[in-house]
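Subject — a protein and its fold
Encoding — discrete vocabulary of local shapes:
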Amino acid sequence: MRRLLTALLAGLAIIPAVAQTQTEKPTIFTTTDFRQDRALWTDPAYYRNNTPGQLRGMAINVEGRRTGQELSARPYGSQGTGRADAANLKSPYPYTNAWDHYQALLEEANGGTKHTPATLPDWSGHWGGGAQFGGGAPASAIAAMLTPKYRETYVQELKAATEGRIWSANSICLPGGYFDAVSAEEFVVTPGRVYAMGSGNGSFTARWIYTDGTPHSPKDKEFPKWHGESIGFWKGDELIVHTNQIHGWKGGLSEFSDQLETVERYRLVGDRLEGESTLYDPEVYVSPINARLRFQRDKETAYEDRMQFNTCTDTNGPSPNIYMDAKGLLNERVAGDPLYWEPGDVRPWATYLNESDKK
């Protein structure tokens, strides 16, 4: 999730022409204007039955290799292996909002288990994993779960990805957002807090999950936060978390709005953390989404896997808007200059995709 696609990726995408006869329905590979294909966006045939991962793998446009970024590479326009029965994204719960869901679980747990340091489960070590959306389902299954506005952006992003036009938050030193933080690598479990941390090539993430019975911030103190605000409780050895005040961004299935709230459940099973995350965002999803959470604990933490504090500028350098001009002075690009991007843009990926579509 958090590994960056390099700038070389786009250069490798040499897109061959995919022929379409007059009697054939367009596909994401043959369409001249994907926005005219709205009736086909939830049809697996429109994506040639490819999963989202398979579509993104076409950016390199070669047969898949065994390692690295080329592991998921596929020829452009090739037939996919999506299975309609691979995943059911719709939440199995009767709740229409995350708070009611969380409160029902809290009542079921009789207010939660009060742990001491000696009774807490051992979540030590280095972990790999996170939220899993859709599995081997075709891209159409995810498109069907999105409201019209976000379905359009989703299809636009997939089409661009098959052609090697991929937007990355880290590429312009922006945060990865909430779902980036869900993919934690280490957990520190105490009686009153659970700390979840992760690091990548250009980021460091941290979540504070308050399990000491304190509530969320008062309504007049709430504001959107990159990783949201999380409170939780223990039901025996299971951790249940409610997160709200999440900064609308991109990740998980698609874009998400400031209305996103989640209920997460984690339980240790051997050397695995297993559970689920139920997503409530009425602006984006036609109904609540349920995703699987799965983490695997490493038998030992390799030296190169030790977490470290990292910033985007360590990897990518300073903001591309700051540069040294011909006089040797630090200067800043402004709107209208080549390579300028607007730091205040709340949907920079959409701006990129719309401009990229014109090229």
